[in-house]
Automatic annotation (TrEMBL):
InterPro entries: RNaseH_sf, Transposase_Tc1-like. Residues 75-140 form the Transposase Tc1-like domain. It comes from the Eukaryota. Transmembrane segments: none annotated. This is Transposable element Tcb1 transposase. GO terms for biological process: DNA integration; DNA transposition. One of its GO terms (molecular function) is DNA binding. Coiled coil: none annotated. Pfam families: HTH_Tnp_Tc3_2 (PF01498).
C-alpha cells in the first residue's frame, strides 16, 4: 500500500499548486525548495515549470486524463464475480462479465475494491484419528538419539516452472480474510503421512 506522500505525488497538481509553483520559481526559488514547500516531487515541479516556460500556460492539457474502459455497472459485475468465485482468474472473470478489456484493468478494478490475488490458506483437517496417529508416531520415536535421527530423510518439494502457468490456485481476497471459508482449502493426506 502506498504511503500518504506517495499517493499525493501520484495525484494531479491543482490550479492553485501550479500557480504557487510558478510564482516561487519566478521569484528564484530552487526546484528542491519549491517541491518541499508544496509537498510534491521535484519532477512534478520541473514539469510544471517547463510547461510554463515552453507554452506560457500552467493549465492542464485537455484529454490528458485516462478514459475509463468500463462502465460503473461493468466494474460492479467484475467485483461481484470475484466475490462469487474467489478462485476465478482474470480471464474467466473477463469472460463471465463479457467485457472486452485486458486482464490488467480487471486487476486494477479489483485492487480498488481492496481485493488481492493470494494463495489460499491450506489447512489440514485434523480429525481425532489423525491426532491419535501423530501422537503414536511421536511416542514411538521419543527415545531416539542423534544416530537414529540421522537415518531419517526429511524431504521438501520445490516447484520449478518453465512455462508461464504454474497451475496453482489463487484466491481473490481482502486483507484479513485468510481464514474465511471461501478462501480456505483443506488438504487431505494419506493416514500414514499425517
Amino acid at each position: 500500500m502506498l504511503g500518504k506522500r506517495a499517493r499525493r505525488n501520484l495525484s494531479q497538481l491543482s490550479e492553485f499548486e501550479r500557480s504557487l509553483i510558478i510564482g516561487m520559481k519566478t521569484a528564484g526559488w530552487s526546484t528542491r525548495r519549491v517541491a518541499g514547500q508544496v509537498d510534491r516531487s521535484e519532477c512534478a515541479v520541473r514539469n510544471c515549470w517547463k510547461q510554463w516556460t515552453r507554452i506560457g500556460t500552467h493549465a492542464r492539457k485537455t484529454g490528458s486524463r485516462v478514459t475509463r474502459k468500463t462502465t460503473r455497472r461493468a466494474d460492479r459485475r467484475i467485483m461481484r464475480q470475484a466475490f462469487v468465485g474467489p478462485t476465478g482468474t482474470r480471464s474467466t472473470i473477463r469472460a463471465d462479465v463479457g467485457v472486452a478489456i485486458v486482464p490488467q484493468i480487471i486487476s486494477r478494478h479489483l485492487a480498488e475494491a481492496n481485493l488481492k490475488s493470494k494463495g489460499p490458506f491450506r489447512a489440514l483437517p485434523l480429525t481425532p484419528e489423525h491426532r491419535q496417529l501423530r501422537l503414536q508416531w511421536c511416542q514411538a520415536r521419543s527415545m531416539w538419539n542423534v544416530t537414529n535421527w540421522k537415518k531419517v530423510v526429511f524431504s521438501y518439494e520445490s516447484r520449478f516452472v518453465l512455462g508461464t502457468d504454474d497451475n496453482r490456485v489463487r484466491v481473490w481476497r481482502r486483507p484479513g480474510e485468510r481464514y474465511n471459508s471461501p478462501t480456505l482449502f483443506f488438504v487431505t493426506l494419506p493416514a500414514q503421512l499425517v
